[in-house]
Amino acid sequence: MPRRKNNPIAFHIKQQGMTLLEFLISLVLGLFLLTLLSTVYVAIERQHKIQSDLTALQSHFSIAEKLLSQELKQSGYLGCLSIHSIQRLYNATTYALTAANKFHVHPGGAESDMITVWHRSVENSVLLKSMRGLKTLYLSLDFPIDAGDVLIVSDCDSVDIFQVASVSMISKSVQKVVSVSSLHKKYNAYADVGLLERNTFLVEKTGPSQYGLYRTNIKGQKIELVPGVQKMKFFSDQISGVSMRLELVEGTLKKIGYSFVGIRM
Questions:
Q1: Up-side HSE of residue 150: CA atoms within 13 Å toward CB?
Q2: Helices (DSSP H) in the chain: which residue ranges?
Q3: Which 8-state DSSP code applies to residue 110?
Q4: What pTM value is reported for the model?
Q5: In a domain, 26, yes or no
Q6: How far apart are CA 179 and CA 93, in angstroms?
Q7: Domains held by the chain: number
Q8: Rounded to the nearest 5 degrees, what angle is found at the Cα of 62, between the Cα atoms of 59 and 67?
Q9: Does residue 231 belong to any structural domain of this protein?
Q10: What residues are paired with 226 via a beta bridge?
């Protein structure tokens, strides 16, 4: 019987990896996906920035409109009496406060207007005992008073505006206030006392394409109230109130808003 010849076992080794063409195709697809994801990310970030700026614009407009409206509504406020109803107003200071100038608009032409408003502070102290002289008042310690402050005292019959010469603490709840000049009468206990406020509102540039609404008080102290306010204009109809136009910017967005404040002119 013929001997069978053994054939060698053939090993077929499969080629590993990818061809150059496959590599290039994968690279192109990867770059395409990366570009697509980057574009989507940038679009989402841009939309988020626009939405954030829009929200800031709405918020800043609401705050500015509310602050200015409240200030205008307080113009001429003297406590239990307004500048229009008072018959006996005695002013021993150099500050002229009348019904005609309880607020004053400083026109800015093509630029932003400024507005100055006069009124008594919302915070008030009470005269704890009737005055014995015409210069000394014993007041509750509801808010701090400093020498040089201008105060308004009212008993719903008459009003005195005077400047403070000195202040001393009598106890933890009582402060002794001495006026620079004599008041026109001796006020009885429980008369109302508050600070005379003169606030000027203006727009200032805070940086490149950045603006803000500022307030300067009677002592010349200036603070920023609302960022983003670029321009404000006021229009008085001399009958029922004041209209105001506010322009605000935030990023690439701009908002123009209007408001009317009904006050006695």
A1: 21
A2: 20-74
A3: T
A4: 0.81
A5: no
A6: 11
A7: 1
A8: 125
A9: yes
A10: 213
Q: Which helix (H) or strand (E) holds 183?
A: none
Count Cα atoms within 13 angstroms, Cβ side, for 9.
2
The domain in which residue 78 lies consists of 54-262
> Phi, psi (5° rounding) for residue 177?
-115, 130
- Whether residue 4 lies inside any domain: the answer is no
β-bridge pairing 125-126 and 159-169: unpaired
d(CA 94, CA 148): 12
- Residue 45 has which token pair? 């970030």
Beta strand ranges found along 96-173 (DSSP E)? 103-106, 114-120, 125-126, 136-140, 150-154, 159-169
Residue 144 belongs to some domain of the structure:
yes
pLDDT tens, residue by residue, 83-142: 888 888 999 999 888 888 899 999 998 899 999 999 999 999 999 999 999 999 999 999
* Those residues with Cβ within 8 angstroms of residue 82's Cβ, 6 or more apart along the chain or in another chain: 76, 264
SS3 73: helix
3-state secondary structure of 256: strand
Q: Do residues 160 and 153 touch, judged by C-beta distance below 8 A? A: yes
Model confidence at 265: pLDDT above 70: no
141: nearest Cα among 191, 175, 189: 175
With beta carbons less than 8 A apart as the criterion, state whether 109 and 121 touch: no
